[in-house]
Amino acid sequence: MLGRPKTPEQYVDLVDQALFEIEDLRLAAEYDMDSMGAATEFLADLEHDVRKLRQTMADGSYRFGKENLPFVTVVENQDERILPFKQLLLKINETHIKGLDVDES
Question: Which residues, in sequence order, are CB contacts of 12 under 8 Å at separation 6+?
Fold first, then answer.
């Protein structure tokens, strides 16, 4: 993945993409519990945290911060074979901490 998003719209798009990926992974895990069962253990919490983040963006209460987003601990402990969009979630967190990638020219 490239650098951090440059606009608020791009940042919201990343969060929306993460929500889509979470839903897709949840459906895959429900379909194939034998090989994907490990994913279901953390997906509910992950989905809750990302939806909460998205809601703050929608209602205008979102603020960039210096601390990791709540879901980061869960994400960092997952293998990319279980969480194939791990880098997307880490990019959202990086943007939360560092802000948008705005040119200072």
Answer: 54, 57
CA–CA gap between residue 54 and residue 71 (Å, rounded): 13
Q: In the structure encoding, which two tokens stand for residue 101, read together?
A: 């990638």
pLDDT digits (tens, 9 = 90+) for 14-54: 999 999 999 998 888 777 766 665 666 788 899 999 999 99
Work out whether the CA dihedral 16, 18, 24, 27 comes out positive or negative. Answer: negative
The Cα 17–Cα 85 span in angstroms is 10
Nearest partner of 84 among 75, 92, 93, judged by Cα = 75
Q: Which residues, at least 6 apart from 98, have a Cβ–Cβ distance to it below 8 Å?
A: 4
SS3 state at 105: coil
- Residue recorded with tokens 């650098």: 3
> Whole-prediction pTM value?
0.89
